[in-house]
Design goal:
Layout (H helix, E strand, L loop, with lengths): L3 H22 L1 H20 L1 E4 L2 E5 L3 E11 L6 E10 L1 H5 L5 E16 L2 E2 L20 H15 L3 E13 L2 E13 L2 E10 L2 E12 L4 E12 L3 H5 L2 E16 L2 E17 L3 E18 L3 E4 L4 E4 L2 E3 L1 E7 L10 E13 H5 L14 E15 L7 E15 L12 E7 L2 E8 L14 H11 L11 H14 L9 H9 L7 H16 L5 H11 L1 E3 L2 E2 H10 L8 H9 L22 H13 L5 H5 L31
Parallel strand pairs: 5-7
Antiparallel strand pairs: 1-3, 2-3, 3-4, 4-5, 5-6, 7-8, 8-9, 9-10, 10-11, 11-12, 12-13, 13-14, 14-15, 14-16, 15-18, 16-17, 18-19, 19-20, 20-21, 22-23, 24-25
Length: 647
């Protein structure tokens, strides 16, 4: 006879089996009910229509979906999917967990369309409450984790995706990605990808590994002359490379997401007018990185290593939201540093990118270098910006010059002046030019006035003034453009004698390195550099050098210049073509110039060039135009007096 307990057990087991049988029998209906409820909520909140032709369980652990579409209301279809099959882990499904073991997908079509301001994907930027989410609180760690979760969940250990087409069109521009077949077997994949942008098609060969259990992803991409899509249209830039490899492992540390791995690129070429007027060939580069993504910050750890040709260094970079409502980078606080102890100097000069340092191309050097750089800028508090950059040398020697002989300023050479990028005058800087004036023939008051106006520490620094560069960076960031460069006389000379006038990053970097080489190698004496500067400086429309300047304004030789005339000539160097703005309609210096003349006078006293009595007697009314410049004041009105801007 069956005991009472056994009867209860049998009844419970039978009931459980009955429930399981019912659930199994109606599992597809239950799945559709859940899906329809979720879809209804999305449709109402995001004003879209979502539909499908079939959704059901096939067997115990396989879900199939056919005919899925996503249609934004009053917009073109965003997504269409012919079929999708997901093979789930049955045991984990019984435990209430969804674990995809195998995926088969066919006929995916995604079309991002935008005409003027209307797009068929606007609803993606709607948050849970149904309002625009662009100002919602940002949690970068959470977003990164969700993105990686979606990636690893979408691509399980085994998958076969066929006939994938993803397109984006904005007005007349378009990009299309086509994948005939994407197969993953035991975590590894290999596929061909066709990219078409505005009629130009590229075929990429990709392969790699996706391991969701170990949170590891590896990807390599190769193609002849591969061009990165979107950049030219969006940023005016073009990036090409022959091959790219990237591998990383994800780990969670407290509230942050850590990514550690490697990336390597071969045949990298970058084109952008702000970088350089010609293509920059960066050859081979690699990085072993450790990146931490936090709630409101991203950080590249200094344990990371960047390798570029022969050069390797350990950068630190942190970008953090400063909590201020601002658009673009002006809502961020950036900190970056590089500290590279002594290393062979040739590692730097033989690694310089082709096309970025034209005049140094082919230079061979010996000795050792050490570099320390640091910048800290909070865009909500620009005046607090911190900056330091120092390249030190030990036993540094130049064994062979590159394309340009950087010693040329030491002797007579031909100088070409440019206007708007076109050459306007060429003359010799030396005794063969009848307008050349040796330094010892220029009055000390004239020499010192220019120094105190342009670069008072010229004879003492090594080509750079860190504080001046810092102030220039603050000014440029406030103006949101290259308006001031913090240039020393050394930097102005190199810019005018060796380089073009293009305001881009390449020119500034090459300018800085040439200045460092000339100053560190003592290729030209300070006295000769200053002599060249005073003989090529622009002092007015087609007026070059102190000889022409003295004649143009005062109809005299430089040796006859008075104290006031010398200070005046020093004052107009930043904006020489607009000297007339310093004068009234009848050709007298404006009273606003008085303060500048007094300032330079005090500095000349401090240098022992003039006496206090002479400084007290400075009179701007003594600046009387007698040369060709006076024709500008034959009844012409003044154009105002804007602040001078020096690059």
């Amino acid at each position: 006879m069956i005991s009472k307990k056994r009867k209860i057990g049998i009844i419970a087991a039978a009931s459980a089996l009955a429930v399981c049988a019912v659930l199994f029998a109606f599992r597809s209906q239950f799945l559709r009910n859940v899906a329809d409820k979720k879809i209804a909520g999305l449709e109402e909140r995001m004003r879209i229509d979502i539909g499908y032709g079939k959704l059901q369980f096939d067997g115990l652990d396989e879900v199939s979906l056919e005919g899925l579409y996503v249609l934004p209301r009053q917009r073109d279809t965003l997504l269409a999917l012919r079929s999708l099959k997901l093979e789930l882990s049955a045991w984990k499904l019984l435990a209430g967990r969804v674990d995809v073991e195998r995926v088969s997908m066919d006929g995916l079509r995604v079309n991002f369309l935008k005409e003027k301001e209307a797009a068929n994907y606007d609803f993606l930027f709607v948050n849970q409450s149904g309002t625009a989410g662009s100002h919602a609180e940002t949690d970068y760690a959470r977003k990164t984790e969700l993105l990686l979760d979606a990636l690893f969940d979408l691509l399980p250990a085994d998958a076969r995706l066929t006939d994938i087409d993803i397109a984006e069109r904005k007005d007349s521009n378009s990009v299309r990605l086509s994948i005939p077949e994407f197969v993953i077997r035991n975590h590894r994949f290999e596929s061909k990808v066709a990219f078409e942008e505005d009629g130009h098609t590229q075929l990429w060969q990709t392969k790699g590994e996706v391991n969701s259990a170990e949170r590891r992803l590896a990807l390599s991409v190769s193609a002849p002359d591969l061009t990165v899509p979107y950049l030219k249209r969006r940023l005016g830039a073009e990036i090409k490379f022959d091959s790219l490899y990237c591998r990383f492992v994800q780990e969670r540390k407290g509230e942050s997401v850590r990514l550690s791995g490697q990336a390597q690129v071969a045949g990298l070429e970058v084109c952008h007018w702000r970088l350089s007027p010609s293509a920059v060939n960066l050859n081979d580069g690699a990085i072993d990185f450790r990146i931490s993504v936090e709630k409101d910050a991203v950080e590249l750890d200094s344990a990371s290593t960047v390798r570029f040709n022969k050069l390797a260094f350990h950068p630190f970079l942190r970008a953090e939201k400063n909590g201020q409502p601002a658009e673009g980078i002006f809502g961020w606080h950036f900190t970056a540093s590089v500290n590279k102890p002594w290393f062979p100097a040739d590692e730097l000069f033989s690694s310089l990118p082709e096309g970025l340092f034209e005049h140094l191309d082919g230079m061979r050097v010996s000795g050792e270098l050490a570099y320390r750089g640091f910048v800290d800028v909070d865009f909500s508090l620009l005046d607090s910006l911190k900056f330091d950059s120092r390249l030190e040398s030990k036993d540094f020697r130049i064994l062979q010059f590159g394309r340009s002989d950087l010693r040329k300023m030491s002797g007579e050479f031909e100088y070409t002046a440019y206007e708007g990028g076109s050459p306007v005058r060429t003359f010799a800087v030396g005794p063969s030019w009848n307008h050349f004036v040796p330094l010892d023939s220029i009055p000390l008051t004239m020499q010192t006035a220019v120094l105190q106006s342009e670069d008072g520490a010229f004879f003492y620094h090594q080509g750079f003034l860190t504080d001046a560069l810092r102030e220039a960076m603050i000014y440029d960031l406030k103006k949101r453009k290259f308006a001031r460069g913090g240039s020393t006389i050394s930097m102005q000379l190199v810019k005018n004698v060796f380089l073009n006038r293009n305001k881009n990053l390449a020119r500034k970097l090459e300018e800085a390195l040439i200045v460092w080489v000339i100053e560190t190698g003592r290729l030209t004496s300070k006295e000769r550099m200053y002599e060249v500067y005073l003989n090529i400086a622009e002092w007015g429309p087609m007026v070059y050098g102190i000889c022409e300047a003295a004649d143009y304004y005062f109809a005299k030789r430089p040796s006859a210049l008075t104290l006031e005339e010398s200070i005046f000539l020093a004052s107009i160097i930043p904006r020489p073509k607009h000297f007339m703005w310093s004068f009234t309609e009848d050709g007298r210096l404006k009273d606003t110039q008085e303060g500048y003349f007094r300032l330079i006078g005090r500095r000349l006293v401090a240098k022992g060039v003039i006496s206090e009595a002479e400084a007290a007697g400075i009179d701007i009314s003594k600046v009387i135009l007698r040369g060709e410049a006076k024709r500008y004041f034959a009844g012409k009105p003044s154009a105002g007096n804007p602040d001078p801007v020096r690059e």
